[in-house]
Amino acid sequence: QEELDAMVIPVSTDLQYLTGLNLKKTERPILLVIHRSGEAVLVCPAFESERIASQADDLTLLVYEEDDDPFSVFAHLLATATRIAISERAWFAEFWGLRAIAPSAEIVGGGAIMEPLRWNKHVDELLRIRHSIATWHQVLERALAQTEHGVRASSLRDLIIHDLVEAGGRAPSCTVTVGPSTALPHGGADLPIAHGETLLIDGGVAFDGYRSDITRTYFVGEPSDKHRDVLAAVLAAQSAAIDALRPGISAEAVDKTARSVIEDAGYGPFFTHRLGHGLGMDGHEPPYLVAGNKQILQAGMVVTIEPGVYLPGEFGVRIEDDVLITTTGAKCLSERVHSIDA
């Protein structure tokens, strides 16, 4: 349908999705080359071939030596190609190497093929996402129970990441911010946790290649009326967005639904980022829930719903949950927050 002669997939989550190979990306290219004829080869360094073959024994390997041009070893496959796709997760060096062996071919992004494949999460994919979510909740609860006033944000972050790895997770991510730094969506100064301050924790972890991404905002001690008001607006916006999620609605319409709630509460200018993003093998992947994105959402997609309000110099509140779009609506996969006390 895309009128391609070939598609090239370097080490990336696209390669892992298609082959199951979870490889470290280095300066030595490893590339899956899929030809229009149906022929497919995995190009890899010769000294890596035994290791890679043991993980993917159904793939034909095409190897190169250390003094070879990695791209020249499969140039013959593209000798007559006029249109080639390359994964949009490729490095520029990989694009440039492909350009060198197919100078007259049109090279396009592979998103038109890969994105629709990855949008619809199958049962086994959902099981991995759910396991990642459950692990994050357990680790976060345990870490908070061990945390005392005066501990710096970085120390709590390090504890959470350590415990995620101990639980068997891979590629953990975590941002912990305190006080005025929570007014910056991705954090700021490394401040100590103190009474009367806001504490924002955002992160996730991967199991068998599939990630979670969850954010929680806490108030240390008794929250002020303003804290309560902002959190109520954020929670109402999140509920409205989840209620609106369904197959057939556009990505921008869901963003608008949440944004309208926050605007009505008087905090519109302080909701400074998109509502959410797709979630799967990458922490951030299509579809993006943002103004201007007219993409129609489909059953089987997993997205984050993460409205936020950020008051400069004061505090910020963001609540993020991972949500599956079903055939009839949406189902939250993470444990939602319903009030300031729960």
How would you describe what is shown here?
This protein is α+β, with helices and mostly antiparallel strands. It is 31% helix and 25% strand. It contains eight helices and 17 strands. It has helices at residues 13-19, 49-55, 92-101, 111-119, 123-146, 153-166, 225-244, 251-264, and strands spanning 6-10, 31-35, 40-45, 60-64, 83-86, 106-109, 170-178, 198-207, 210-211, 214-219, 276-278, 285-289, 302-305, 308-311, 315-318, 321-325, 330-332. The strands form five sheets. It has a six-stranded mixed sheet with strand order 4-3-2-1-5-6, with helices on both faces. Strands 7, 8, 9 and 10 form a four-stranded antiparallel sheet that branches. A three-stranded antiparallel sheet has the order 13-16-17, covered by helices on one side. A hairpin with a 4-residue loop joins β2 (31-35) and β3 (40-45). α5 crosses α6 and α7 runs antiparallel to α8.
Radius of gyration: 23 Å
The unreliable regions are none
Shape descriptor reads globular
H-E string: EHEEHEEHEHHHEEEEHHEEEEEEE
Number of strands: 17
The portion of residues assigned to helices is: 25-40%
Measured by DSSP, the beta-strand proportion falls in: 15-25%
- Largest β sheet strand count, sense and barrel closure: 6 strands, mixed
Mean pLDDT: 95
C-alpha end-to-end distance: 50 Å
Provide the spatial order of strands within the biggest beta sheet.
Answer: 4-3-2-1-5-6
Provide a count of the helices.
8
Please state the structural category: alpha+beta
